[in-house]
Design goal:
CATH topology of the largest domain: 2-enoyl-CoA Hydratase, Chain A, domain 1
CATH architecture of the largest domain: Alpha-Beta Complex
CATH superfamily of the largest domain: 2-enoyl-CoA Hydratase, Chain A, domain 1
Radius of gyration: 26 Å
Strand content: 15-25%
Number of domains: 2
Number of strands: 15
Oligomer: single chain
Helix content: 25-40%
CATH class of the largest domain: Alpha Beta
Shape: elongated
Largest sheet: 8 strands, mixed
Distance between the termini: 58 Å
Structural class: alpha/beta
């Protein structure tokens, strides 16, 4: 065969693969305002940086080869802000991007290259689950479980998943293994579709109820960020990766510091109510101490009595865990425990220092919490905290009561403990303590209640902690940003390196 004939055949095969599931299906997606798998890649990556791997792959079944361009999953390498990434974009126009033998090999190759070469792995999810008849019968069983490390996660590099449609099977599994999950409203993530689930449990169920964005963002916490469109999801991924190193052997990137970055810190006293019983939104404190426009909140809709965020101080990435009195008075419930623990694991895995902003009245106690395993969640958090090897600084703003004092970095659980003059270090809320310890209620004996109240609040201020050198410094709240920048500069480069030991790198990604 002449060379030109072979090259013509290559051109034809490429064109067929690039045609995806056909013009009709692609036009239907456009009419729905949803990007196709290749358009998502174009929007996500730096222009002209995509190199495709497996363009000419198809189903291994002869009768399916003409119907499976790229075998329904588009794989390759590219760049985001000039840094290499590996990615997989599911093509729902080809058999619903169902999982098969060949496209499973693609996923494995991308995953292994990302881990070995130290680059983020991005999965743009939309899939119908396992492909039949590939998975049927004994032959189908024989193709499963051939990769014993398929579900192993040691956090060599960041993994990001976008849930951009119906996500069952592999899209769900990889989302649950990812460090960050962004979900488009209207997408669904579940073990199996609503139709299959309805048949299995013999009752009707809507897909949105089964695994819609409200469930995953507010109840399970498996979606970290929610957006309205594909374009917004891809923009979020680009922004998120800007806080992270490409892999665990590097420090996070340093960004330019905007002019006047420290000016907002001067307004902290305008945010913090003078009455310690008044609530406020701690996210405004985070914004005040951060570089302008650098706060990126994680799991904003889940476990809301704690706020977790990536941000920048003096151009450098920091992870913040902050009690938020706006929700449940800052009392820490089971969801907030899980949220804080997973964020500790993430920060330690990718060399991100941690700042605690503390204002909590203790853990949320009650029957519901105990039924959901609150003691175990509290100790999970402490276990993770004890294994963190990146710098940790705790800033006690107001209340820090009970065991939660330790969970929020008190004592030797941080490298430095900083107090505001408004810090309150009691074991529990004094009014509750008087009743619990002495059985005295304010309405029954106001004078005796006040005497005992004053006794319980003696030596709970920041001065007592400073006298014992249990806090290393007491500062004006408006000095918080400068204080953190100085202390992080001291602790960030341990033995000349900003890279931690990653003792938490194989901690479960969801539990």
């Amino acid at each position: 065969m002449a060379v030109n004939d072979v090259l013509n055949e290559l051109t034809q095969r490429r064109a067929k693969a690039l045609g995806m599931g056909g013009a009709e299906k692609l036009e239907r997606r456009r009419a729905e305002g949803v990007l196709n798998a290749r358009e998502r890649i174009e929007k996500l990556l730096d222009p002209g940086s995509f190199f495709e791997s497996g363009l000419l792959a198809t189903s291994y079944r002869p009768e399916m080869r003409d119907r499976t361009p790229a075998d329904g999953k588009i794989a390759g390498f590219g760049k985001i802000e000039g840094r290499p990434v590996a990615l997989m974009s599911n093509d729902f126009t080809v058999l619903g991007a169902s999982s098969s033998i060949v496209n499973g090999k693609k996923i494995r190759h991308m995953r292994e290259i990302a881990n070995r070469n130290g680059m983020p792995f991005i999965l743009l999810g939309e899939s119908s689950g396992a492909r039949m008849p590939d998975r049927m019968g004994a032959q189908g069983r024989a193709i499963l479980g051939q990769d014993p490390t398929e579900y192993q996660r040691c956090r060599h590099s960041p993994w990001v998943s976008a849930l951009l449609g119906a996500c069952y099977g592999s899209s769900t599994w990889y989302a649950c293994m990812s460090d960050f999950v962004v979900m488009r409203k209207g997408a669904v993530m579940a073990v199996a579709s609503g139709r299959v689930t309805s048949m299995a449990i013999n009752q009707p169920i809507e897909s949105e109820e089964l695994g819609g964005w409200k469930l995953q963002a507010e109840i399970t916490g498996q979606a970290d960020h929610v957006v309205d469109s594909d374009e917004a999801a891809l923009a979020v991924i680009r922004r998120y990766l800007g806080y992270l190193p490409s892999n665990r052997s590097e420090a996070p990137p340093v960004h330019p510091v905007p002019d006047g970055a420290g000016e907002n810190a001067r307004r902290i006293l305008d945010i913090l109510p003078p009455d310690s019983n008044k609530v406020y939104d701690v996210r405004k404190i985070i914004e005040a101490i951060s570089d302008p426009d650098s706060v990126f909140e994680i799991k904003a809709r889940f476990g809301k009595s704690i706020a977790t965020a990536l941000t920048r101080l003096d151009g450098r990435t920091v992870g913040v865990i902050a009690n938020n009195p706006m929700f449940k008075g800052g009392a820490i419930d089971v969801d907030a425990c899980a949220k804080a623990t997973s964020f500790l694991v993430f920060c330690d895995s990718f060399n991100i220092p941690i700042v605690f902003l503390v204002d909590q009245p203790g853990f949320m106690i009650g029957i519901e919490g105990e039924r959901r395993g609150a003691p175990g969640r509290i100790i999970n958090w402490m276990n993770a905290l004890s294994l963190v090897t990146v710098p940790k600084i705790s800033v006690i703003m107001r209340k820090s009561y009970g065991q939660a004092y330790l969970n929020m970095g008190g004592g030797r659980n941080s490298d430095e403990v900083v107090c505001w003059p408004t810090a309150d270090l009691g074991f529990m809320a004094p009014g509750v303590g008087v009743n619990a310890m002495y059985g005295v209620k304010k309405e029954d004996d106001p004078k005796r209640f006040q005497e005992l109240f004053e006794e319980l609040t003696r030596d709970t201020a920041a001065w007592g902690l400073a006298a014992l050198y249990e806090t290393q410094t007491v500062i004006d709240p408006r000095e918080t940003r400068d204080c953190l920048i100085s202390l992080l500069a001291v602790h960030r480069a341990r033995h000349g390196s900003e890279v931690g030991q990653h003792l938490l790198s194989n901690w479960p990604t969801s539990y």
